[in-house]
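Give me C-alpha cells for this 128-residue protein.
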Amino acid sequence: MYPIISQRKREWMSKEVEVGSASELTPGTVKGAGQFAVGNADDELFAVTRRCRHLYADLANGSIDEDACLVCPWHGAKYDTRTGRMTRGPQGIFAKIPGLGMAVKALTLVLPLGRGRVVERDGTLYVE
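Here you go.
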C-alpha cells in the first residue's frame, strides 16, 4: 500500500533544477538555480535556499569564506552549508544592535535554510 501524497507535493518532489556544467562550479563559486543558491565549498557541492534569514538578500550573490561558509552579500552573515544554520549574525551596523545577531542565529536553529541535493549526470549538475 502506498501512502497518499497530494498532486502538488508529488510535482514538487519530482522537480529538478538544472544548475549548469559541473566544470563551471569551481571551489569558491556560488550561483543561483531556481530557489537555490548552489556552490562549491572546498570541493563539497551544496544547495541551500537563496534568501538570507536577516533581510532576505539573495545568497546566490554571496561568497564562500575560508571556513567554507556561505557569506551573505549584504550584511556578512555566515551560513554552514551542510546544515543551513547561521554561524555568524549580520555584520556592519547591524552587529551593533544588541541581541540582533543572536536572535537571527537562534531563528536558524529552528528554521535553517532549506537544502537540496546536488547531483551530477553527464557533466551537468542538478538540484533535487
